[in-house]
Amino acid sequence: MRYQPHMTFVITDDAPLPNGAHSDWLVASDKTRFRVARFHPTTPPIGTVVLLNGRTEFIEKYFEVIDDLLARNYVVATLDWRGQGLSDRALDNRHKGHVEDFDLYVSDLRQAVIEYIEPNCPGPFRLLCHSMGGNIGMRYLGEHPGQFESAVFSAPMWGIGKHARTPLWMRAVAKLTRFLKVTKPYIPGGGDFTPKDRNFEGNQLTHDPVRFKRYVSHIDKDPTLELGAPTVGWARQAIRSMDTIHSPGFVEEVIIPVVVCTAAEDALVSPDAQRLVADRLPNGKQLVIPGSKHELMVELDALRAQFFTAFDDL
Length: 314
What we know:
- 33% of the residues lie in helices and 15% in strands.
- By secondary structure, it is an alpha/beta fold.
- The radius of gyration is 18 Å and the shape is globular.
């Protein structure tokens, strides 16, 4: 079935709008407005993939991935997290990546599922998460069981950098800023989105220059999509949320089939943390993809093909 698009998207020449596009806005209990979207295949769907993107990202960045899922006859439902994409930003400086509590992300996802996805999208439901979306997605699976039949994680944020667990010095800084009631400054060394963030050379996301250029083209078309570094408040809440995932008994309650796909060259989130969590999942396994940077779904063809093989096998 072909749906008439509802247009609230940033469209560029090298990233056309996928089929059956519809977008809308939801308003959270604290009055934050966030964008939701869904895409429908031309043939009868076999279910719905709920796609959760990472920090700094936005729906349009995943148009190619959405097309891949539509070709598999899935409806795709997704959203812009509060504080990024076209959703409301928390601070006057919209470059600052800030959230008061990661619980708000989980709550926004719950609202999207109940108010937008379930009424408009067919089951069964599969979860597909990347990076920060993988943190929120695992929290959701642990706190709201029975919603999804399976889950695939791409480089999930269960540890920062190379650290499987947050090191003591990071925890000390987080405690100090909490004691001082400091939440809104950038993390040390962080700042606004700048022209150098548009450069492919030296990026930590992908080896693929074409897919990187597509990402930049959306930001060039609509600079309101730009997002800089996180705040110290975001970082403190990220540590707290990662601790929840690593807490005894949490992931053991996630009994659905899960595949954790790890980027071997990831410099942003911890492959070791992913291994620790995958080993504890009752029905989980880890796939390490050699030669890949952080963004497995926007990597070179040969690398992203390994990711989608794992998705299909599950």
